[in-house]
Amino acid sequence: MTYTPEYNPVVEELIQAIKTYEPLKELWMTPEELEKELGITISAQTRMRAERKIPFYKIGKFIKYNKQEINEWIKSHKVEVIE
User: Fold this and answer.
1) Mean pLDDT, 10 residues at a time, over the chain (83 residues)?
2) What ranges in the chain are assigned the alpha helix state H?
3) Do the Cβ atoms of 41 and 7 come closer than 8 Å?
4) Is 10 helix (H, G, I), strand (E, B) or coil?
5) DSSP label at 31?
């Protein structure tokens, strides 16, 4: 018997989850990685976090940025073109 997705929706769901899997490490950035990627210095990040101007997570002494939230934050600062 050959496998077809309609016989087992749970298996099909698992296959889709594997196809769209993104490792946890790739979802998060350290302050150093954010500085390298966007050019925002560590001191600027510290100031922005203190003023609650950038989304971040603090776990103990560790600071992490969620890549998706940073992308949304950047998009929210779009300056419209005046023609």
Assistant:
1) 63 76 80 96 97 96 96 92 90
2) 9-19, 24-27, 31-38, 42-50, 67-75
3) no
4) helix
5) H
Answer whether 56's CB lies under 8 Å from 64's CB.
yes
* CA atoms within a 13 Å half-sphere pointing along the CA-CB vector of 26: 4
Please list, residue by residue across 10-36, b when 16 or more beta carbons sit within 10 angstroms of its beta carbon and e when fewer do.
eeeeeeeeeeeeeeeeeeebebeebbe
C-alpha 26/C-alpha 24 separation (Å) is: 5
Beta bridge partners of 28: 66
CB contact at 8 A, 34 and 45: yes
Alpha carbon distances (Å) from 60 to 18, 36, 57, 63, 68: 31, 23, 10, 8, 22
Is this structure's pTM higher than 0.85?
Answer: no
